[in-house]
Amino acid sequence: MESRVSVFGTGYLGATHAACMAELGHEVLGVDVDTEKLKKLEAGEVPFYEPGLEDVLRRNIAAGRLRFTTSYQEAADFADIHFIGVGTPQKKGEFAADMAFVNSVVEDLAPLLERPSVIFGKSTVPVGTAERLGARARKLAPAGELVEVAWNPEFLREGFAVKDTLHPDRLVLGVDRNRPGRAELVAREVYAKLLKEGIPFLVTDLATAELVKASANAFLATKISFINAISEVCEAAGADVTELADAIGHDVRIGRRFLNAGIGFGGGCLPKDIRAFMARAGELGADQALTFLREVDNINMRRRTRMVELAREACGSLLGARVAVLGAAFKPDSDDVRDSPALNVAGQIQLQGAAVSVYDPKAMGNSKVLFPTLAYSDSVYDACDGADVVLVLTEWPEFCQLQPADLADVVRKKVLIDGRNCLTPSDWRNAGWIYRGMGRP
Ligand code: UDX
């Protein structure tokens, strides 16, 4: 059955969720306070790079199923099902998540809810948030006890956002077990098409659903830092971490995915989510349980420093050296540069006196805003012009397909450091280059 839903927040999560809910046949109203963003979305333009999303957006706007507004009143009049997909960034100077956006959606929406309604939170939040927001919504809403808050965490990856939303590995729904209500039934209707395809649907209590998301991200971060820690040992022992990952990954209990060693994880989720998870465990008196995540974070940050060291070793001194940086996005198929390892490395190298030239196929605009003092080039070749060392820091296909002959006449010295282990060492070495990987001999 088609429903009317509103989605608060039109960032990576909210815009994707709104467009995909419309794709499932629902009538959707996307709500945001940012009028510029809404203007773009209304014109069928996605304000960030996400493969496939623009098609879904345009198709559903054209079909009349998807609209946008800044008006909470309009959302409350339009729908009885509301999704919250606003950001929960890291607080300045603290590990904890900043809940201001999530809180304000509930503070501003609840007083307008005159009919029985379900609010589904999708944002990644500290455990206990849903229960707190439920109490607040019931207190503020004219419909009182007939307003429910449930938690439906989102697991989408940037670059695969549409696929992950329309074909998720699983759906998780946390409901308030102390107040049996309609949330599960409503979710089953909203996601009926996915459930028909056999997507697993797990219903839990509120706290468990919140923790599922935090633990999933903590596990992924741990897996990456595990292989990066092993890559440090590989470097010391002269072993090859990529062959090692292939070999241990054959064990189905381990699995090969998320075992790519390199300059580590970044982005708007994993780094801040593990920190928020530690902070929340501390508040709950369970800080001992997650101290290992501190080490996961440390290992991750050490990989960036290691990359800077490798660049310094390659140049002798970074002072006055020309360094080509290929990649700025925190991962390929994204223009997101939040906590990007690539830009962090580029910044550190520049601070040490090198002339850095950065190129990224999609993230140049965002990079220039975040790091206006770095120098940028319009192509791989411009970036590598006269370089003493070439650093591959994001594994865009364009970089992974580079051939030694492509760059041989452009660079000053044939030295390449592969921060994502995405190139074949023998190709480069046989062509007379010095090739260094991360955790490779
Ligand atoms: C992540 C989770 O995967 C997703 O489920 C959650 O909803 C949000 O956070 P995302 O941040 O989009 O998604 O990116 P992801 O693909 O997980 O990559 C995160 C970072 O880890 C990137 O910087 C990537 O380069 C790095 N990474 C990933 C590695 O360094 N090695 C790997 O093997 C995998």
UniProtKB/TrEMBL annotation:
Identify the pathway: Nucleotide-sugar biosynthesis; UDP-alpha-D-glucuronate biosynthesis; UDP-alpha-D-glucuronate from UDP-alpha-D-glucose: step 1/1
> What is the scientific name of the source organism?
Rhodococcus globerulus
Keyword terms, alphabetized: NAD, Oxidoreductase
Q: What class of enzyme is it?
A: oxidoreductase
Signal peptide stretch: none
Please identify the protein, giving its name as recorded. UDP-glucose 6-dehydrogenase
What Enzyme Commission number(s) appear in the record? 1.1.1.22
Under the heading NCBIfam families, the entry gives:
NDP-sugDHase
Q: Which family does it belong to?
A: Belongs to the UDP-glucose/GDP-mannose dehydrogenase family.
Q: What residues does the UDP-glucose/GDP-mannose dehydrogenase C-terminal domain cover?
A: 324-425
Highest taxon above the source species: Bacteria
Q: Name one GO molecular function term.
A: oxidoreductase activity
Catalytic reactions of this protein: UDP-alpha-D-glucose + 2 NAD(+) + H2O = UDP-alpha-D-glucuronate + 2 NADH + 3 H(+)
